[in-house]
Amino acid sequence: MAEQDWKQQKRPFAAVSTLPLLWTLLFFLLPMGFVWFYSFGRNAGLTEIDIVGTLDNYKRATEWLYLGIFLKSLAVAALVTLICLIVGFPVAMAITFVSEKWRPWLLLGIMLPFWTNLLIRTYALMIVLGQQGYANQGLEALWSGASWLKTLIGLQPLSTWEPAPLLYNNFAVVLGLVYVHLPFMVLPLYSALDRLDKSLIEASLDLGAGHFRTLMKIIVPLAAPGIIAGVMITLIPALGAYLTPDLMGGTDSQMIANVIERQFKRANDWPFGAALSFLLIYAMFILIAMQGLRKKPGGDAR
Amino acid sequence: MAFFKRTAHAPLEYSKSLWMRGWVALVMLFLYIPLFVLMAFSFNDSKRNVVWRGFTTKYYGIAWENAQLWDAMMNSLTIAFFATIFSLIIGSMAAVMLWRFRFPFKSAVDGTMSLPIIVPEICLGVAFLVFFSWIGWPSGLVWPINLGAIIIAHITFCFPFVTMVVRARLASFNREQEEAAKDLGASEWQAFRDVLVPHIKPALVSGALLAFTLSLDDFVITFFTSTPGTDTFPVLVYSLVKRGVTPDVNAASTILILLTVLLTAVALKLQGAKALADTH
Amino acid sequence: MDLKTLLQAGGDRRSLLKGMGVAAIGLSFGGGLAGCSQEAGKKLANGEDGTLNLYNWDDYMGETTLADFKGAAGVDVKMDLFDNNDTLFAKFRAGNPGYDLIVPTNDFVERMVSADMLQKIDKAQIPNLKNIAPEFIDVDYDKGRQYSVPYTWLVLGIGYRKSKLASPPDSWKLLFDSDQYKGRIAVLSEAGDMFRLYAKYLGKSVNDITPADVKIIEALMIKQKPHIAKFHSDDGQDLLAKGEVDLVLEYNGDIAQLMAEDDDIAFAIPKEGSQLNSDNFCIPKGAKHPKNAHAFINFVLDAQHGKKVTETILYPTPNAAVKALMPDSYKNNPATYPPADQLAKCEYAKFNPDLQPLFEEAFTRVGAA
Questions:
Q1: Residue A272's pLDDT is what?
Q2: B178 touches B191 (CB < 8 A)
Q3: A78-95 pLDDT, tens digit each
């Protein structure tokens, strides 16, 4: 279905566009405008910023030190998104295909943990993962069980158990981020899958395609808009995560958001923090706008 | 909308297949183990939340008496409530605008509206700090008007999430239905209300859940937009970090979790599980 | 008008408005702008309404102190909480959001004074200042105590698990330059504190660091990094309690609290000396209830009421009258009150705006290395 030209539909267009556009202008672009100006400024004293039109902040922000951290954060966020997609897709399918009586309970089941404060949940997760935490206790029990089995069949027992380092490293950061961002993937997937025309799947199965082929050839393409939305709202916030790397990460787990946060707080260097933030913003803006441009010629892509 | 009424077909009963059930069970286990630990530690007889030192229910008493805690909860829920409603309205409007119309600078508008998701929290927080101080936002107003600045900030970073989800759903909308409704004499508004809105209902539910969750959990932006007397639950909790999270916060969280489950159960019972389930 | 002047004018207009607001309150004895506020109406003898907006750390007030003060002075204290000095400072950069009393740490007192954020304290309104031990009145970070009144003090040191260490730690070397306790060490994530303590380890004053030293220390940190388990954000006592690490760089007050629960924990100040910190009451500019704030400070400095605070928070107190009233178990705790000869080697850190960005960038490099 082609998009309509706004000129032919002025009143409906005005009805839906006025509020979002005004809001974005007033309560997003205007506040961010201040920070944007800061990114071309220089600290003059402790609280004053001279807007001198310098590009020094951007020059510093594109140094390899910061680019490296950015690339590493991107890699972590991409990995987290991928894991969320793999873990979340079957869950979204389950919500879609479950009986209507159970669906609200499944939805609630996914969301409920996230209505508990992030910090409290993260602390609880850290109790589970610690050196003497429950995960390690479980692993130790398995280990000694395996050791016992080996002696049972006359082999040497396993070496003594060393607690697995589940916390304060990059593994913990990825695990923590998956934990935090899973619903951001499941919800868009569910809302996209929910509209699937089930007869297509039936047809595919009737025609002899296996479940896996049906999944890849029918379900995934039909769920594509949901997958894209899910990837966007998982990847981008994961890229901006600062609490999880801070609390669960080790000595080399800092992510770009931690660095940005430090500029605004400890370093008291707002111009540089602004420049770092805006580099991130420019990159994303270009990405999103390009996606829009790419689709435009077709006209009916959305 | 009974458009695709589901008929029970054996091949489609994915929810009955063993691996699917196992998978969902594993994911739930992953999500809930920390929550159970949290609940268990609300009975821990230690001021610090890290090592088990014996059973006590005293922290429920302490949490119950802690007026600051409940004030903060109330503030958080109020903010999340308003932020969710307005995010839903603004977010779906933006989605419909971007999906249906062709207008100048559309790609730029599209990109801009997604930006609040990518802007680092601290950056948006500072932006709002400077902004509200520049317009001279008054402090010391009566509750809940004193939460206004925080609500505005929350709407700004919540509504793009709604837009994304709703737009993904709109992609599947069959415009002919709307045209048919209009041919039958429905006005633009009636067609919107009776045809389009029912179609995007699952996305509205997802979007509302996302917005509510995001608002409820936000710390940084709230911190920078708060004035005296507007501490929210996350702001309270983050100030605990220096001295460690104490079990009374766990106790309060446990009460909140149980309350949520109970309220949902009652709501579902009352409505015959219709409200959330009937998304078709 | 170009945008630059517009931005600056914006800031000016706001402070002008605020100034006018304060003046209006002063003129009408608290009338004026208070019209739309929550506590309008009731006036105290000092001309202010019965409110005090206190911005404090968590768990940093006596259990009944706020209620007691309401009973004594009729002032309703509304306490909000902040989580660290950096966020406190960042929030006040755009102007006082409405607080009457804040509790920054010593270097941030200096910072906020030089940023012109604080009012002078009127000592005539705080007779209980006499209770403060003299060594806490005469401090470098606020000469003559013009802007701040000390509330607690702290010293950084090594908290450790006795059963896991061969001998009590006596040098920063164990944390900063040794693999003896590889993977069992946690240090602070606060760049400034880390660089200053490394300077101590290298035999320098915490306030004598040069950019060349920063380079040297950065190299040392990168060398030591593989042996460090965690850069913690001041929750090191939890890491120690959980058994995640056996040695942790922390404040004595935090370790003292843990020692009360766990006999296997102890605290030591290394022989090279360490860094002192002190949290202080300050009245920010633009406070609407400065008299109530003074009255509250005076109330907390009172021996009996101060004792109740110290009994709750168990931190070292600069208040000699309060300390005298406390039981021996508190007074003689070597973690809370380390021996005088050790304390003599400790210094307050001076706020240094030029070095702070260098610390941060170097620490970012350490994290990325």
A1: 93
A2: yes
A3: 999 999 999 999 899 888
**ipTM over 0.95 threshold:** no
Q: Are C186 and C244 in contact (CB under 8 A)?
A: yes
Tell me which chain B residue has its CA closest to the CA of residue A231.
B164
Is the domain of C268 the same as that of C303?
Answer: no
Q: List the single range of A99-108, C214-223, C320-329 with lowest mean pLDDT.
A: A99-108
Nearest CA in chain B to A301: B171
Q: Is C90 part of any domain?
A: yes
Is C2 within the bounds of a domain? no
Q: Which residues 6+ apart lie within 8 Å of C257 measured at CB? A: B47, B243, C237, C314
Residues C149, C301: contact at Cβ < 8 Å? Answer: yes
| Domain co-membership, C145 together with C169 | no
Query: From the CB of residue C60, how many other CB atoms can be counted at a distance below 10 Å?
Result: 19
Question: Is residue A267 helix, strand or coil?
Answer: coil
Below-50 pLDDT ranges, chain B: 1-10, 273, 275-280
Counting the structural domains of chain C, the total is 2
DSSP C209-252: --HHHHHHHHHHHHHHGGGEEEEESS-HHHHHHHTS-SEEEEEH
Q: Say whether residue B124 is in contact with chain C using an 8 A CB cutoff.
A: no
Looking at the structure, do residues C237 and C300 belong to the same domain, yes or no?
no
Q: What does the pLDDT look like over C328-349, one tens digit per residue?
A: 989 988 899 999 899 999 999 9
Asked whether residue C26 is domain-assigned, the answer is no
Instruction: Specify which residues C152 forms β-bridges with.
Output: C279
**In which residue ranges of chain A is pLDDT below 50?**
1, 296-302
Contacts of A291 (CB under 8 A, 6+ apart): none
Domains of chain B: 66-245 (1.10.3720.10)
- Of residues B259, B204, B219, B232, the one with CA closest to residue B147: B232
Q: Is residue C5 part of a domain?
A: no
Residue A168, chain C, CB below 8 Å: the answer is yes
| C-alpha–C-alpha distance, residues A272 and C345, integer Å | 37
Residues C220 and C345 in one domain: yes
Domain containing residue C323 = 37-153+278-330
Whether residue A261 contacts residue A272, with contact meaning beta carbons closer than 8 Å, is answered with no
Residues C221 and C341 grouped into a single domain: yes
Residues of C in contact with A131 (CB under 8 A): 242-244
CATH of the domain at C166: 3.40.190.10
Which residues from B are below 8 Å from A184, CB to CB?
210
Q: Which amino acid is at C98?
A: G
Residue B151: per-residue pLDDT = 96
> pTM of the full predicted structure?
0.84
Substitution target in C185, C242, C365 with the highest count of A β-carbons within 10 Å is C242
